[in-house]
Design a protein that fits this description.
With 199 residues, the chain is of the alpha+beta class. The protein has one domain (2-182): 2-Layer Sandwich (Beta-Lactamase), CATH 3.30.450.150. The protein is 39% helix and 13% strand. The chain has helices at residues 2-14, 29-32, 36-42, 50-66, 96-112, 116-122, 170-182, and strands spanning 75-79, 85-90, 149-154, 157-165. It has a 4-stranded antiparallel β-sheet. The longest helix is centred in the first third of the chain and has 17 residues, at 50-66.
Length: 199
């Protein structure tokens, strides 16, 4: 099993990420990232600001409350490029597995620099079943190969990632929230098998 995990990790490292960058957004980079004063203190400039992270979380909650077919329940995480949680919200009724997977999806999108559903497609078997592996667990890294995690990119700079779990439209919740706050986003990967939706 360890050998299989090592081989998959190597394959993931060698597979180039699907491009996830837009040429322009509704919000400029300096308005989406931390202030100059914060950057001087933390030595990191291209990190999503708490204000924009909260706007994205709120937009995802709005999507959940107004989605077709009735309100949804989601766990939403917005991460900084170093993996720290900048903002998070767990709606009433989300099961524990939805909270866990929301965070893992955000980490997957952050480390792979691509939607978690695109990673899922790389590691789906012929029946469309998605393989979950906690790769790099000792280093605090974890991958969850299911849709719902998206990188947050402004002016071709990765400033964070969002992960949504617990609902039946996780990826759409994340995508619509980014579109509402940051402007047009690249198209989502085309689902293959069962790889794009769910917990």
């Amino acid at each position: 099993m360890k050998r299989v995990a090592a081989m998959l990790f190597a394959a993931a490292s060698l597979t180039p990420p699907i491009a996830w960058a837009q040429g322009s957004s509704a919000i400029p980079l300096d308005k989406a990232t931390v202030s100059r004063e914060v950057a001087q203190r933390t030595l990191m400039k291209n990190q999503i600001s708490a204000t924009v992270a909260r706007q994205i979380v709120d937009a995802c909650v709005d999507f959940a409350r107004n989605q077709q077919g009735g309100p949804g329940n989601y766990a939403i995480f917005v991460l900084a490029p170093n993996g720290d949680i900048v903002d998070a919200h767990v709606m009433d009724g989300v099961m524990p597995i939805g909270v866990e997977t929301g965070l893992l999806k955000a980490k997957t999108a952050l480390y792979a620099r691509t939607p978690s559903s695109a990673v899922a497609q790389r590691f789906s078997d012929v029946d469309g079943r998605v393989i979950r592996l906690d790769l790099g667990k000792e280093s605090g890294l974890a991958y969850y190969f299911v849709g719902g995690g998206l990188p947050i990119v402004v002016e071709n700079n990765l400033i964070g990632a969002i992960g949504v779990g617990g609902g039946n439209m996780d990826e759409q919740c994340a995508y619509q929230a980014l579109t509402k706050v940051l402007g047009p986003q690249p198209p989502l990967p085309t689902p293959a098998g069962r790889g794009g939706r769910g917990q």
